[in-house]
Write a structure and sequence with these properties.
Chain B: Pfam families: SBP_bac_1. Chain B: It comes from Nonomuraea turkmeniaca. The complex is a heterodimer of chains A (281) and B (455). With 281 residues, chain A is mainly alpha-helical. Chain A contains 13 helices and two strands. Chain B is 45% helix and 13% strand. Chain B is globular. The chains are: A mainly alpha (281), B alpha/beta (455).
Chain lengths: 281, 455
């Protein structure tokens, strides 16, 4: 009888998740034009993949995005949540303001930021001009394009993370802080010795989620720069997209998607294993 | 019980999958072929839609047994693959001229020569407009709607403000450079903008290479190799670099595709760009250019090549269409797109219907779909309904026939363009970019792609 209740979920996941995944895996070993019967080509798609110099550019760029995301995008919401948790008046207003960017559709936000980043009369360069600095090329230079993407995406996604941290902070027993305060602990010490250890499972989970989502970054480089300038923002997902939708190389696209899925699965497994003790600490 | 529920689950799953895969839109009554065609104007374009509906009614009257269902969708690389795989793609698709070679190479479209040849005037088609729709064996895969040749689009108002003669667009690339510099200095707008993303940087560099007398690909034994690492492309890129960094005449935004450029042109932000007369329609109807009479176009400026690239939209039949539908589709293509370029009565009637809408662009000049005598007759027939300022297209009309019309690179043009996008971007965004190094690397990348191509 229990199985009957599972059927709707099984059907939904089967049709929309598992079957496309299996199909993708099959296509990675085939050559197809999606009309004629596909032909099996063994590992040809994978060979073509490793011979494409853009693959390595895309891997390096994706790692750079993940790295910059960890450096900027990971601590920012934690710091902000800590500061916000100490605010007594108007906490709701701050929460609303921080969460607002999440509500804006990503493409709309990116198009808005495209104007902020405009090298001629964009908001940022105008602001920099006021203090006598800049102008910076932002998206128009291979040196600053990826950083510009990370800054925007941190702004866009920080809201949800801040709310999760705030919710987790509420569960930290107030006695701990009271005891620390009586012992004369400073704010920094309270953060280091109480807040962070208490948040460890949440931090761990969010870190994993961020790693997985930043590795799959697509919308930002697609809408902002189309991978440019000089492929400096070409990410793995954008490369998969180009293979499939511009070159019609469906097999190669599926092969890369398959490798990415394996990589992410492995990373998640290693990460979960390494941090297994965190939750119970 | 377990067994029953398990089989029930499998049955539901199977039904769902079957429902997803079944053809919903076949709409085939006995004896009637239902043809789903792209190219129907959107509901917002009422006169265009009314003209299309009349065309459908006339066609159905002439061809009993064929029912036409219009679709306002056009070829979109994002959805095409999924629609093709799901058997949902229309029987006639509208494709920009940059795509046919890729579709032909992947065997996703049907060869149409046998069906087209049944039309008595087939042999009179201008071979230059069919070449970009044909494979190396001469098999034809489509019918063009409005064949164009690339030219130099310019803003006549900005020309005047900069003290330049709007009746005399630059004919050489040296003049383009001088004009761009002057526009930038006198008006503060970008004098000339070169596209650089979505494979359009490579596409535009191809036009420049042709104008400078170069080639994109050449045959070497059995294989094709890159031919752009040579003087013409080098000169073209050096010119762009000087315009960008020495003259500062290309504006601030360098990551643009054609839509970005036309949008900015319509807003009066750009002096000149490379495009077809067809971009007039986009500037007017899509981006609402307020002073559309400022639109001017001349032939592609030259630097020794005496050549330009063809462009426009074409109609093709996807491989998924049955033989019966393919035959019906070719009848429709000839009726809807070839006949009005051949038959003066049909041309005049079509133009009259279109001219009912003040927002429509009637009389935008094209290349002759057949021969020049026939085109002159057609032009004469539609003359009373023309609502574009033909004199602003005159330099293009007069200058283009003097140029050789060239097609896109024959093998994997889009892959070549993708590699060259980076080269163009480097030249436009990096003051220290070294053209020789960039071309050398691009040549190696393209050769690797051409060698790997399983054609």
């Amino acid at each position: 009888m229990a199985f009957l209740f599972l059927v709707p979920a099984f059907v939904a996941f089967g049709v929309f998740s598992y079957w496309p995944m299996i199909r993708g895996l099959l296509i990675s070993f085939q050559e197809t034009n999606l009309v004629d019967p596909a032909t099996w080509v063994g590992l040809d798609n994978f060979t073509a993949l490793v011979r494409d110099p853009l693959l390595y550019t895309a891997i390096a760029n994706t790692l750079l995005f993940v790295g910059l995301g960890l450096l900027i995008g990971f601590p920012a919401p934690l710091i902000l949540a800590t500061v916000m948790s100490t605010v007594r008046k108007g906490a709701g207003v701050y929460r609303f303001l921080v969460y607002l960017p999440v509500v804006i559709p990503p493409v709309v936000a990116i198009l808005l930021w495209k104007w902020f980043y405009d090298p001629g009369h964009g908001l940022f360069n105008e602001l920099l001009g006021l203090i006598g600095a800049g102008p910076l090329p932002w998206l128009e230079s291979p040196r600053t394009a990826m950083l510009s993407l990370v800054i925007q995406s941190t702004w866009a996604w920080m809201g949800s993370t801040v709310l999760i941290y705030l919710a987790a902070m509420v569960t930290i027993p107030a006695e701990l802080y009271e005891a620390a305060q009586m012992d004369g602990a400073s704010i920094a010490r309270r953060l280091w010795h109480i807040t962070l250890p208490q948040l460890r499972p949440t931090i761990g989970l969010l870190l994993l989620l961020q790693l997985v989502s930043t590795t799959q970054v697509f919308t930002e480089p697609y809408v902002f720069t189309d991978g440019g300038p000089e492929n400096s923002t070409l990410t793995i997902l954008l490369l998969i997209f180009r293979y499939a939708f511009r070159d019609g190389a469906y097999g190669q696209a599926a092969a890369l998607a398959f490798l990415l899925a394996i990589f992410l699965g492995l990373m998640s497994a290693i990460y979960l294993r390494a941090t297994r003790t965190w939750g119970s600490a | 019980m377990k067994k029953i529920t398990a089989s029930l689950g499998v049955a539901i799953l199977a039904t769902a999958v079957a429902a997803c895969g079944s053809s919903a839109g076949s709409g085939q009554e006995s004896g009637t072929v239902t043809l789903r065609v792209q190219g129907m104007p959107p509901a917002t374009d009422k006169p265009g839609l009314a003209a299309f509906e009349k065309m459908v009614a006339d066609f159905e009257k002439q061809n009993p047994g064929i029912a036409v269902e219009g679709s306002s969708a056009a070829y979109d690389p994002l959805t095409f693959s999924a629609k093709l795989a799901g058997g949902k793609v229309e029987d006639v698709i509208k494709v920009p001229l940059t795509e046919p070679q890729g579709l032909i190479a992947r065997k996703q479209v049907k060869p149409l020569t046998a069906e087209l040849a049944k039309w008595p005037h087939y042999k009179e088609f201008n071979p230059q407009v069919l070449r970009p729709l044909s494979d190396s064996g001469g098999e034809v895969y489509g019918v063009p709607q409005s064949p164009f040749a690339m030219g130099l689009v310019y803003n006549r108002e900005l020309f005047e403000k900069a003290g330049l003669d709007p009746g005399k667009p630059p004919a050489t690339w040296e003049e383009v450079r001088a004009h761009a510099k002057r526009i930038a200095e006198k008006t503060g707008k970008a004098g000339f903008v070169h596209e650089s993303k979505n494979n359009q940087g490579g596409w535009q560099l191809t036009k420049l290479t042709y104008a400078f007398g170069g080639e994109m690909e050449k045959q070497s034994g059995d294989t094709w190799v890159a031919a752009f690492n040579a003087e013409p492309t080098r000169q073209a890129l050096t010119l762009l670099k000087e315009m960008r960094w020495t003259d500062d005449s290309m504006g601030d935004n360098q990551l643009n595709d054609q839509n970005d450029v036309i949008k900015r042109f319509a807003a009066g932000e750009i002096g000149m760009y490379l495009g077809t007369p067809g971009t007039y329609r986009l500037a007017k109807m899509t981006y609402g250019m307020p002073n559309i009479d400022a639109f001017g176009i001349g032939p592609l400026p030259q630097a020794g090549g005496n050549a330009t690239l063809t462009g426009g939209d074409v109609y093709m039949v996807p491989k998924s269409a049955s033989a019966e539908k393919t035959a019906a589709a070719v009848k429709w293509l000839l009726f809807a797109y070839a006949q009005p370029q051949y038959d003066t009565g049909a041309a005049a009637e079509r133009a009259k219907a279109l001219a009912a809408d003040p927002n429509a662009a009637v009389g935008v000049p094209t290349l002759p779909m057949f021969n020049e005598v026939r085109q002159a007759q057609i032009d004469e027939a539609v003359k009373p309904y023309v609502n574009v300022k033909l004199e602003h297209f005159q330099p293009w009309i007069e200058g283009t026939p003097k140029l050789q019309l060239r097609a896109e690179p024959p093998v994997r043009a889009q892959a070549v363009y993708a590699v060259l996008d980076s080269v163009v971007q480097a030249v436009l965004t990096d003051r220290d970019a070294d053209v020789n190094t960039l071309l050398g690397k691009a040549e190696a990348d393209v050769n690797a792609k051409l060698a790997a191509s399983r054609q």
